[in-house]
Each structure stands twice: as C-alpha cells, then as structure tokens.
Amino acid sequence: TPRVFSGIKPSGGLTLGNYLGAIKRFVDWQDAGTHETIYCVVDLHAITVWQEPAVLHAATREVAAGFIASGIDPVKSILFNQSQVSAHAELGWIFSCVARVGWMNRMTQFKDKAGANAEKVSLGLYAYPALMASDILLYHATHVPVGEDQKQHVELTRDIAQKFNHDYKVDFFPETAPVIEGPATRVMNLRDGTKKMSKSGESDMERINMTDDAATIAKKFKKARTDPEPLPETLDGLKDRPEAKNLVDIYAGLSGLSAEQVITEYAGAGWGKFKPALAELAVEKLGPISTEMARLMADPAEIDRILAHGADQAREIAQPILDETYRIVGMVGR
Ligand code: ATP
Ligand code: MG
C-alpha cells in the first residue's frame, strides 16, 4: 500500500493553523483508508531552535494528545515521536550529503526564521529540510499532507530523492508530492494578515491554541485585526482584504463549507455579527478536542506507551530502507 507521512514539531502548543492545515487532513487520509498513514511528532526538528527540555518533553506529549483527540487512531495510523527511530537522523545525514548548499539557500522559511540574524541561528535550522526529506523517504511515502508553508520543503524532498537516485544510478526513492488541501491551507496571524499563524509566534493573541477555552477564543477573534468594511456579497470582494479573507477561510475550514458558501450566508454582515458566530463555531469544534486532550494528558504513561508502540512499527518499515540505503552508498557492514 502507498504511504502518507507527515509531522508536527513540538515547538509549542498546537494552533488552529496546525489543526486546519495539517491534523484535520491527516485524519481525512487515515479515514479514507487508501494509504498507510504515518504521523510523527518531530522532536528532532523542534530543537533547531532552543527548547527548554522540560517544555519540549511536555509539548511532545501535548502534540501526541492533539493528534489522538482530533481523531488519529493509533490502531489505524502509526503515531510516534521522531527521536525514538534513530534511522531518521541516520538517513538525514546521508541526505545532507546529497542536498546542495545552494538549495538550502533558496528556502524562504529559513530566511523568515533566521531574519537578520542568520549567522547566529543553529546549523540544524539551516539543514533541517534534509532531515525532513529523510522523515518522508525513510517510509518511501509518496503523499505528504502539509500546510502551504511547507510546500517548498516537500518539493526539496523530491529533488533530494531524484539526485540520490541519479548519483547512485538506482531507482530507489519514490517521487513525493505535497498535498495541500482544504479551504484553510494557510491560516494567517490574527494580528497581522501578512504573516501565517504559528505556534512559535511572539504573542498569544495572534493565534488560537487548540487548548484555548471559550472565553479566550471569543476574546481573540473579537480583537482580531480587520478592515472596517462588512463582508462582501461575493468571493471576489475579499481580494486585497487579507484579514477578512482569513476569517472567512477559518470559518469555512471549521464548518466544512466552501468560502463561497460562507460568503453567501454572511453577505453584507458586519464584524459584530460575523466574529461572534466564528467564535461560537470554533468553540463548538475545538471544545471537545481540548477536553479530550486534557483527559489524555492526565495519563502521560498511556501517551508514552502509544508513542513507543508506534516507534516499534515505524522502525520495522524504516530499518530495511535505511539498510538498503547504506548498501547502495557503499558502507561496509550492512
Ligand atoms: P513553528 O512556528 O514552530 O514552525 P508551526 O505552527 O509552523 O510551528 P509546524 O510544526 O512547523 O507548525 O508545522 C506543522 C504542520 O502545520 C505543517 O504541515 C504546516 O504546514 C502546518 N501549518 C503550520 N502553520 C499553519 C498555518 N498557519 N496554516 C495552515 N497550516 C499550517
Ligand atoms: Mg512551522
């Protein structure tokens, strides 16, 4: 069976962006049953920027709980944390010898994250797309559901696979494609419609956390930046209105309606009407998930057991692929 792989970093609490752009899609792939689904809490990626060890430890369990509470079933999908399967780091090294420095230099996310401080960030932050390629290709995964912001990295994965196959004259790693689906593939920051919502963003007011309570969600949407105009009569009217478009897309993502249907329903409505409706919808959808997350996190031993079991299953797939890679490369002993 063809495989789907994707991951989320335990670099903070999960956001509505992670939910709509990634986790909800992961559940769709799992439930479709057409592919073997492998989902990973990518803790090795998280430490590309500084993480307090105790905070990283807790966030890893929280992301795992977020997956399960959202509908990832550890019986139907493989769910594990990256550092428990050492093959990721091993193949990541080989891929960092395949990838070119020039390729990394083109990664817009690195430029965004490093900002003016590119000399001071970790080498890992720079090289991380090579590790990400190993996460995916270690399972010969062909489909990678991600948000819009990860498109470039998944395309780089394809380039790495092609160069490996070409250099070693093999047809070993498959072609991989990003799958970017749904009405909310790039949820924007609530305070600045030009930036994406991120779990590592500076201010808590710029994002909805999956664990926010009803009052906090209502307050954040109420304070979300918008222009003064009411909602337009047609989808076209959202052009050049990034904040308005974002809130409509979020509504669509949460409700299962298309953005067009949302506009039809709320044509001409002011923010005083739309924002409370959006908050109510978000609470309705996220409330049960955060309640379930809290229940799961109260029993960390159970989460750890699920992750350890998932890691066993992941290793079973990954190890033969890593062994064969070493053999192709010419290493003695495999
Ligand atoms: P960080 O700020 O630490 O990078 P993040 O919120 O960007 O955190 P990641 O762990 O980098 O989260 O990404 C996990 C998944 O969530 C990826 O598939 C990514 O594309 C998706 N994602 C992240 N932010 C958004 C967003 N604002 N809208 C849609 N999808 C998103
Ligand atoms: Mg990110």
From TrEMBL:
Question: Which Pfam families does the record cross-reference, listed alphabetically?
Answer: tRNA-synt_1b
Database matches in InterPro entries: aa-tRNA-synth_I_CS, aa-tRNA-synth_Ic, Rossmann-like_a/b/a_fold, Trp-tRNA-ligase, Trp-tRNA-ligase_bac-type, Trp-tRNA_synthetase
Its main subcellular localisation, reduced to a broad class, is cytoplasm
Residues where ATP binds: K9, P10, S11, G17, N18, G147, E148, D149, V187, K196, M197, S198, K199, S200
Question: What job does this protein perform?
Answer: Catalyzes the attachment of tryptophan to tRNA(Trp).
Q: How does it assemble?
A: Homodimer.
Q: What is the name of this protein? A: Tryptophan--tRNA ligase
Gene this protein is translated from: trpS
